[in-house]
Write a structure and sequence with these properties.
Belongs to the ROK (NagC/XylR) family. By secondary structure, the chain is α/β, with parallel strands linked by helices. 34% of the residues lie in helices and 20% in strands.
C-alpha cells in the first residue's frame, strides 16, 4: 500500500490539474478541470475543490501526508495568497487557507509555477545532480526558479528566480510590469511573434501567427523569423549570464513552449552566452532543454509538498527532495 504520498495541484489560466504522487515522483492518480478564469473567485475555488474531491475519493488518498501547490503568479507564499495575472477573480486569494480546509488540515506548500518547474527539473529532470541551477519557463511569459547549494531557493514570497523581469535593454520597450527592456518583453512567445510580424514576417496560409509558426519559418531560413529568435536568445543569454554572475549557477535549464523551437532558439542562445558569460567562473555554464514536459508543474508541486510533511499544518517552506 502507498502510505507516504503527497497531493499536488498545478493551477494555471487554462486548467487546474491534480495528482497523488509517490516518493519517486510517479503520478498515481490524476484529476483535472478547466479553469473558469473569467468567473469570480469562488467559481475558481470550486474547480480546485472539484479536483481535490476527485483525488479524495481514491483509496490512495488516506496515504497523502501534505499538499503542494504550483500556481500561476504572482504568489505570496508568506501570506498563503495568489493573484494570477490571467485569473482576475483571484487577487490576494487565500488559497493555502482554503486548501488546508478542503483537505482536513494537511500541511500545504505554495510556490509559483516557475519555481515548481525548477523543483521538478532538479528532482527528476535536466538539473538533477546539479547543486546550483537556474530553470526557466519561456512561453506566454518568462518565469523561472533557482536551486542554490542543492536546495530550491524560493525567497520569502516564493518568487525568487523570476528572470523574466530582469531588464536587459535599459532604454527598451515598456513592459506591462512597469519596467523597461525586460527579458520577457523580448523573449516570450507573443513578443517573438510580434517582433517577427513588425519586421515583415508573414504567417502561412493557415494564418498561424504564434512563436511556433515563427520557428517553423526560421528553420526554412526566413530572415525576420531568424532575427526575432536571435533577439530573444540574446535577451535570455544576458539574463542567464547576469544570474550566473550573481549566483554561480552551473546549468540553465529552459522549458516552456518556446523551448520547443529547439536549435532555432538554443543555437543562438549558446552563441550569445559566449558574449555575455565571459568571466572565468561562468564560462563553463551548461544550457540544456527541460525534460519534464507538461507534468513538471505537478511533479514540482509534489517536490514542494515533500518538504512540509513533518512541519505541521499551514507550513509553507519548500525544498526539492
Amino acid at each position: 500500500m502507498h502510505t507516504d504520498l503527497v497531493a499536488a495541484l498545478d493551477i494555471g489560466g487554462t486548467k487546474i490539474a491534480g495528482a497523488l504522487v509517490d516518493g519517486d515522483g510517479s503520478l498515481l492518480v490524476r484529476a483535472q478541470r478547466p479553469t473558469p478564469a473569467r468567473e469570480d473567485a469562488e467559481s475558481v475555488m470550486g474547480a480546485v475543490a472539484a479536483v481535490l474531491e476527485e483525488l479524495k475519493v481514491s483509496p490512495l488518498w488516506h496515504g497523502a501526508r501534505a499538499v503542494g501547490i504550483g500556481s500561476a503568479g504572482p504568489v505570496d507564499a508568506s501570506a498563503g495568497t495568489v493573484s494570477p495575472v490571467n485569473v482576475p477573480g483571484w487577487r490576494d486569494f487565500p488559497l493555502v487557507e482554503r486548501v488546508v480546509a478542503e483537505t482536513g488540515g494537511l500541511p500545504v506548500a505554495l510556490v509559483g509555477d516557475g519555481v515548481a518547474m525548477t523543483a521538478a527539473e532538479h528532482w527528476l529532470g535536466a538539473a538533477r545532480g546539479y547543486d546550483n541551477a537556474l530553470c526557466l519557463v519561456v512561453s506566454t511569459g518568462v518565469g523561472g526558479g533557482l536551486v542554490l547549494g542543492g536546495k530550491l531557493h524560493r525567497g520569502p514570497t516564493g518568487n525568487a528566480g523570476h528572470i523574466g523581469h530582469i531588464s536587459v535593454d535599459l532604454d527598451g520597450d515598456l513592459c506591462p510590469c512597469g519596467a523597461r527592456g525586460c527579458v520577457e518583453r523580448l523573449a516570450s512567445g507573443p513578443n517573438i511573434a510580434r517582433r517577427a510580424l513588425e519586421n515583415g514576417w508573414l504567417p502561412g496560409p493557415d494564418g498561424d501567427a504564434t512563436a511556433a509558426a515563427v520557428a517553423a519559418s526560421a528553420r526554412l531560413g526566413d530572415r525576420a523569423a531568424v532575427a526575432s529568435f536571435e533577439r530573444a536568445a540574446q535577451a535570455l543569454a544576458a539574463g542567464i549570464a547576469a544570474t550566473a554572475t550573481l549566483t554561480e549557477i552551473d546549468i540553465a535549464v529552459i522549458g516552456g513552449g518556446v523551448a520547443g523551437a529547439g536549435e532555432v532558439l538554443f543555437a543562438p542562445l549558446r552563441r550569445s552566452l559566449r558574449d555575455y558569460a565571459t568571466l572565468s567562473f561562468v564560462r563553463g555554464l551548461t544550457v540544456a532543454p527541460a525534460v519534464m514536459g507538461t507534468d513538471a508543474g505537478l511533479v514540482g508541486a509534489a517536490a514542494a509538498a515533500s518538504s512540509v510533511r513533518h512541519e505541521g499544518a499551514n507550513a509553507r517552506a519548500v525544498a526539492a527532495p
